[in-house]
Amino acid sequence: MVSMSSDLTHELCIEIGRTVRASAPDGWQEVDILRCQLGTFGITAITYRMADGSQQIRDGKDLGDLFHQLKVAEYRPSEGTWFVCRLGYSLRGKSYDSMMETFSMESPFSQDYTAMMPPAFGMELPFAQDIEVPAWAYVEELTMFPRRLDLTPSWMCAAWPEGVPLPEGDSTLTSPVDSEPGSAWPPLGTMVARTAGRDEDPETIVFGMAEHEDGTGNALIFMMSTEEPDEQEIGLGMDTYCIVREDQAGTTYGGVTHCGIGSGRLTFHFTSEAAKELNVEPVVRIDLQIDDDSIVLLRSSLREILLSGRRDQHPLGMHL
Question: Which is it for the CA torsion 287, 291, 295, 297, positive or negative?
Answer without folding.
Answer: negative
